[in-house]
Amino acid sequence: MQTILGAGGPIADELARELNRRHTNEIRLVSRKPAAVNDTDELVTADLTDATATSRAVAGSDIAYLTVGLPLDSELWERRFPVMMRNVIDACAEHGTKLVFFDNTYMYPGTPTTQTEQTAYAPGGRKGRVRGQLATMLLDAMEAGRVEGLIGRAPEFYGPPPTKSYTNSLVFERIRAGKRPFVPVNAHTKRSLIWTPDASRALALLGNTPDAYGQTWHLPIDPNRKTYAELVALASEVTGRKLGYTVLPMLAFRLGRRFVKPLDEMYELLVRYQGDNIFDSTKFAERFPDFPVTTYREGVRQLLD
């Protein structure tokens, strides 16, 4: 049995499909309102902030994938995420279940320095501190021998609906709607983006590779990074339309955050758009050289063609 804790989002849904395609048809989906992805999925309703419910959801699982997400709300993250991680670690330790944690890069410094699996945590805000805390909780449990686990870490998403990210909502969804795309902060810095189905397929592969455990892995991206200007140019080629874009400067976000809570929550992440964002997934590429990574050109084509 392989169990997805936090079922229902684009990462979890594609993970369920990939596990069913290549690894097992014994899949359990766990969330507050789980819905089947494959015909054979087992559905379990559970709140991961409840330790008893979490233990019950994990029981009988060989591998558990923690993919749970929360709205972009710092107070909510601080209150709920550490409780969830503690409960999941305890449940996996209790039942002898391997744990695969799907993580992001918010704990890394927002500088142009290349990000590798060895990059030290230096969060620039509340959400980054929470993500660093979660990763450290799991690494400490792995080091202590409580659980056999791994971390699969991804940079910003882009991908097919219902993928949610700033790149999707500000750039590609606006292009699909016939609107002028918005570019956050700077159109000429290189971006590291992961195609969401690639992230899910890589997570399934890591979870079913015994020697991948005990490590942190950067999930695979196209290393030929593009700027937003170059992504919009690719979109022009794909759609056959001459597309421009409007840059939203830091000042616009600085003013807007006073009145719009989502902009305030986004603000701590904007430093990442001022300079190049270089997320390195060489370790994964060297270990799994046959893994097919979706190129930016192919991703844009799938989104817009």
Output the CATH class name of the largest domain.
Alpha Beta
Distance between the termini: 38 Å
Low-confidence stretches: none
Q: Assign a percent range to the helix content.
A: 40-55%
Q: Specify the CATH homologous superfamily of the largest domain.
A: NAD(P)-binding Rossmann-like Domain
Chain oligomer state: single chain
Keywords:
305 residues, alpha/beta, Rossmann fold, UDP-galactose 4-epimerase, domain 1, seven-stranded parallel sheet, NAD-dependent epimerase/dehydratase family protein, NAD(P)-bd_dom_sf, Epimerase_deHydtase
Quick recap:
Pfam families: Epimerase. By secondary structure, the chain is of the alpha/beta class.
Describe this structure in words.
Residues 4-212 form the NAD-dependent epimerase/dehydratase domain. Pfam families: Epimerase. InterPro entries: Epimerase_deHydtase (IPR001509), NAD(P)-bd_dom_sf (IPR036291). This is NAD-dependent epimerase/dehydratase family protein. The chain is of the alpha/beta class and 305 residues long. It folds into 2 domains: 2-156 and 194-218, NAD(P)-binding Rossmann-like Domain (Rossmann fold, 3-Layer(aba) Sandwich), CATH 3.40.50; 158-192 and 223-278 and 290-304, Alpha-Beta Complex (UDP-galactose 4-epimerase, domain 1). Helices cover 41% and strands 15% of the residues. The protein contains 11 helices and 13 strands. It has helices spanning 10-22, 51-58, 74-95, 126-143, 166-176, 196-207, 228-239, 250-256, 261-267, 282-287, 296-304; strands at residues 2-5, 27-31, 42-45, 63-66, 98-103, 149-153, 156-158, 182-184, 190-191, 193-195, 216-218, 226-227, 246-248. The strands form 4 sheets. The chain has a 7-stranded parallel β-sheet, sandwiched between helices. A two-stranded parallel ribbon has the order 7-10. Strands 8-13 form a two-stranded parallel sheet. The protein is globular, with a radius of gyration of 19 Å. The chain starts with a strand and ends with a helix.
